[in-house]
Amino acid sequence: MGLMEARGQAVSRQIQGYVLDTAQMKVKDVSVRLTSSLDTLTTTTSDKGFYSFKAVRGTDIRISFSMLGYQIVTKTVPSYDHSSFVLMPNVILTPQSSLIEGVYVVKTIPVVYGEDTIQYNMDAFKFRSNSLLEEALKQLPGIQVSRDGTVYAQGKPVSSVQVDGKKFFGGDVLTATRNLPADFIKNIQVIDYYGDYVTDKGLKSEESEKIINIVLKEDRKRISFGQVTAGGGTSGRYIGSVGMNRFDDGQEFSLVGSINNTNTSLFSFGSPSGVGDRERSLFDATDFVDPTDGVNNIKSVGFNFADNLAENTSFSASYSFTRRDNVTTGNSILQSNYVANLISNEESYQTTNDDNFHRLTAEFKHQFKNKDVLEINPVFSYNKVYFGNKRWRLINNNKVTNHGVYQDTSYQKNPNLDVNILYAKAFSKPGRKLLGNVVLNFNEQNKLEDALDSYVSIDSSTSTPTRSTFEQQYFIQQRSGTDGMKASVSFVEPFSDYSMLELRYEYELTDMTAMRRVEDKLKSQETDGFYFVDSLGVNYNYRFNSNRTGLTYQYTPNKLFRANVGFAVQPITLTGYLPREDMRYRYTNVNVVPTAGFRWRINEELDWGIDYMGKNNQPNFLHIIPVRDNSNSQNIIVGNPELKAEFSNRINTTLRKFITSRNQYFETNFAYNYIANKIVSDKTAVAGSTIQETTFKNTDGYYDLKWYYLFNTPLFNENLQLDFSGTADYYNNLSYVNDRRNKTKQFIYSQSLQLRYTWSDYFESMFNGNYVLNNASYTWPYQTEITAHSLLLSGATRGYLSDYVTLGAEMSQRFNAGYESSFMNNNPTIINAYLEVAFLANKLALLRFQCFDLLDQNKNMGTYSEYIGNDLYEARNNRLGRYFMVTLNMRLQKYPKKK
């Protein structure tokens, strides 16, 4: 028995649906018979044509529907679907007119909602012929795709992708969405993923992540396919890519490569935000701008392999390499407000980044004869980066003005190895489970950096202004390493039909080392030798040690209700050691961590849940290095080795309502997070200068409140789809300025609307509206409030002039107001247009003429704002401007010969 089959045997499912006649009337008293490898169950439909089976076990599930005067209909539950809740498509009974039995499906239900899974049946949606998965995802209710390829499901970023239950390119999202054709896919399952071995009754001790499982159509499980794209355009723009894929009943092989300077990424390395990018907001998805700063030249190549080595053994591996050359120019303003001392730093800058990233992943799974399961997942990455940064600065306060240049260049190597080992012990008693998990991490960083700081200072504090110069040049050698280990053992024991206990032990150990040598190159020139600044050197060892023992009780009286309560004790120890000074730092604490939650399925279409969790967050390494880092003379950083670990307390509640008959879905979530021993900045202005010094301390009082909702519904008919979503976040941030406690209260509200219209097979359009309010207020040095607004309106349309010609256009208009800097309050208009012509047999070739940013305003779109403590920061980076381009895409497909 294979691993997937074994999981299917263990899952206890609830299966239900409706039976209708050809007039779409619900039919009662239909005999419904379910058989599986373990069960045989029978029932009849209610007055509303509804049937339900509870506690269904086993695989090879078949359901037959029979009634006198109607043809017998037989349905199957796919073997790969191991959801605990399955809502079957409507069954249509046809009057008996002959002795031929058959399956008659009039309509496919577009979306099926389960407890932890939302399934999109792709046959119920209309997609452009030959479109890739990324384009198809944009048309699914509750799913948004930003221009950089980040996928959001129900407001949360998707972290991993599987194809028929196997990770594709190590789970990389972009590689899957930009390579798999939409018409290969039977359905897409969006899963709240807690891990492969959560018990079937839902005992979950960690927060879930969003993953996507792509289920291929049966006739696409054995196929070779690929595509080749080449294009060139104005302003030196070019793109080229190739992808080759082979699927053969569980065996998968893929090879992809790309080269371009149009800011198009192929790999996201398993991270929704990609490497080196800022975190994206969900609401970036509604804009037609290119969200990548600077101009990038990207080269990438990768392969993926997956196969079943034996009946109970599977193996997969993937490798990817990306080289990203980035040049970014921009300008910024940073205002730091102290009492009677406003320090303003205006900068123009240029950064260059040459990032070479290798990533190798593997996954090995084996099920033993006694049903025990072993999984080993190693991930190795190697990052080599050259970084250059040159900044022209004007810094002033009331009396001192500095004008100069800060420049640093660095060369960095960073190898990293993660190994995840899991063993699941099988028992004959249903529900009993023993899991062991070990995670090992080995990380090293070697960095060489040249830092040059030079400026002219004019001091007007006296009657006669004085002029002075400052120059500093350091060569910094830094080597650091982080070795970590996390181990956990969990034993689950059911002691009644409705109750179970989990005993869990977790151990975490993290060792960090840092060595730093700083050479003063100006002094070295004077002494004709190497002059090292001892006060800036570091030789530091740090260890974080945590033990956590907990007990969780879960009560599940029926399929509609589940409650759990738990209690854990977690002693932690933080130690630091400076060998040179023979100084030791030590912090110990014992955290009491209660957990609680419940899930209540109020009826077949409404459920509600509440969870509470406690979690430790150890300090960032840069926070605790006990050294005075003045390589940037205007912003001195001093680590605090006596920092304590943060402890967060989070309460989260979610309400979901789905109306299958109307294809409507509503979800709302509210979360409260309080952090004890919050690590905050402690800033001081050096008297009589523009210099600021920052260190860190622990404090209490931080909390945040977050709320979101989303609603999807068709209007009038399924050709008109409406999506509403909104968020409201409140942050009570804390910081210290000149030893005074400062609160920054920030409120961010977003409201988004999307309307999609499809008219027959020849025309489709989309309209987006998005409003964002950002309000920040400060308590020190005096009451200050900043309110910024942003409104975005955008629309896109696509028309099919014939079966071979497509014309499309998209436009977005943004309105900004309330920001401090004039460059933040720009109102750009973005217009893109394209013409596509398909030719050759089966439209295997596609010629595309496109224009990006007709008005040449995207280059001014890279704006950012941040308001923390007594700081106001606003910046703008350059982006790609207008260009025209011609691309040719060739699809390659080979189906197996029919016998």
From TrEMBL:
Q: Which domain of life is it from?
A: Bacteria
State the InterPro entries in the record.
Answer: CarboxyPept-like_regulatory, OMP_b-brl_3
Keywords on this record? Carboxypeptidase, Hydrolase, Protease
**Protein name according to UniProt:** Carboxypeptidase family protein
Q: Where is the signal peptide?
A: none
Residues covered by the Outer membrane protein beta-barrel domain: 426-827
Q: Name one GO molecular function term.
A: carboxypeptidase activity
| Entries under Pfam families matching the protein | OMP_b-brl_3
